[in-house]
């Protein structure tokens, strides 16, 4: 049976030639490390989110009168509903962590430099879309935690003069978080954001294949040191084949990702579901403590430290813009960050500051 299917594909699309030219003949640098696999792991994480989200949609009701009960039904009654919801919740946090690590490793290895500026921008836009995914999905359970966190977040645009109130009301569908907000966030989460993220992924992968994978700067190839004055595809005649060498490395890391996910689901199922997530939303009762998810804790704490709300939000937008366009600011040809003490110190200090603000935001 398998042989007949294989022969049929061979006759119609030249399967053997496709595998040889696109997988076996495609080479990657010999010194690639595990950080090169994080992009593939993020792709698998997104697929898991899409599949688990599809099963959740079967029972979820996007209405303020039924949303919380439908989520409780998923967790307690629907067959394997608890498993798909925990995979979705834990997976969203792990996916953000993987993308963070991917961008940090790309920065550390200088892989954002010419001609890969657009690849870097596409990656950053994917991170922003993923965070928007998390934000919009956070409200859907319609719990005390999700309701009041969304109330805090959607109030941020009001710091801007003239347009702030309009943006906040546009997000909420009124002056307060309500059932209209739930409908808008649901539409954003399941209909608007998925095609955008898929489109960015296609562009990201196209750029990587079109330009070629970058090699670590600590042992740069001759192609990487040539001045980039016109388009050329970076190839590695003495490198390792994409298949099976790199694919197997990707599979190992995907397996590790799944191990971490199911470890959290098995031994720490409430890690991302605190007590307030099991209480239905009550607009008339403000909880004593409301904190965003861990990936928003650093900007959250930064806003608490800066007394002027407009200044705090403006600084954060400026930081995002700086990181997004960083390849155009960093015009030095040296890719090895270990040979650039100032950049290495800035990178390390920024990372430490982000960790400190995150821990501070969690404990304060």
Residue fraction in strands: under 5%
Share in helix: 55-70%
Q: Counting H and I runs of at least 4 residues, what is the number of helices?
A: 15
Main β-sheet, spatial strand arrangement: 1-2
Order of helices and strands: HHEHHHHHHHHEHHHHH
- Tell me how many strands there are: 2
Largest sheet geometry? 2 strands, antiparallel
- The stretches of 5 or more residues where confidence is low (pLDDT under 50) are none
Shape, please? globular
Distance between the termini: 62 Å
- Radius of gyration computed on alpha carbons: 23 Å
Mean pLDDT: 92
Class computed from helices, strands and strand pairing: mainly alpha
Quick synopsis:
The protein has 364 residues and is an all-alpha fold. 67% of the residues lie in helices and 1% in strands.
Q: Topology, please?
A:
Blueprint: H1 2-13, H2 15-24, E1 27-28, H3 38-59, H4 67-76, H5 81-108, H6 117-139, H7 144-154, H8 164-172, H9 179-211, H10 222-225, E2 240-241, H11 242-267, H12 294-305, H13 309-324, H14 326-329, H15 341-363
Antiparallel strand pairs: 1-2
Helix pairs in contact: 1-2, 3-5, 3-11, 4-5, 5-6, 5-11, 6-9, 12-13, 12-15
